[in-house]
Amino acid sequence: MEAEVTLIPFSSTEVTLLRGWLVAPHVAAWYADPEDHVEWAANPPPGGDRALIVVGGQTVGYVRWQTVSREILDSVGLHEIPAGSVDVDILIGELEFVGRGIGPKALLVLLSQLRQRRDVPLVGLTTRVQNLSAQRAFTKVGFRVLREYSPPGYGRCYLMVYSFSEDA
Predict the structure, then answer these.
(1) pTM of the predicted model, to two decimals?
(2) What's the pLDDT score for residue 158?
C-alpha cells in the first residue's frame, strides 16, 4: 500500500531542517541563495504560507505559496498573469523520496486547498529550463509551460501554470 502524502503547518522551529535541505546537492542546484528561502519561511510575507510535506509520518519536503500582486508580477515581466494568482515553490529534501511521485501528490493536496478559496485565478511555478524532472512532475499534475523568462538570479526558466477553469 502506498503511503498518503499530507501537508502539515510549518513553524519557524523547522528552519534548521529547511536550511539543511536547501544546501543538499540535489536541492541546491535549483535554489539560489538558501538564506533568502529560510528567511521567507521564518517570516512569510502577507499572503504567503508554507507547509511541510509528510509521507507515512516522515517529513520529506517543503512547499510554500504566495498570492502575487500586480506590482510584483509586473516587476518580473509577467504582465499576462492575473493579479491574485498564487506562486508556488516546492522541494523534496529527503533524497530517498525524490522521483517517487511525492511532489506531484503534494501539489495536488495544495491545489485542492487553493481551489476551495475560489479567488485564485491561476497557480504558477517557475522552474529552470534544465530541470527536466521538475517539469515532468508539474506536468503530471496539470501544469503547462506558459513561456520562458529570466527572473533575477535564476537564469532561463519556464513559467508553468495551472488554471482551475481548465480542470474538470
Answers:
(1) 0.91
(2) 94
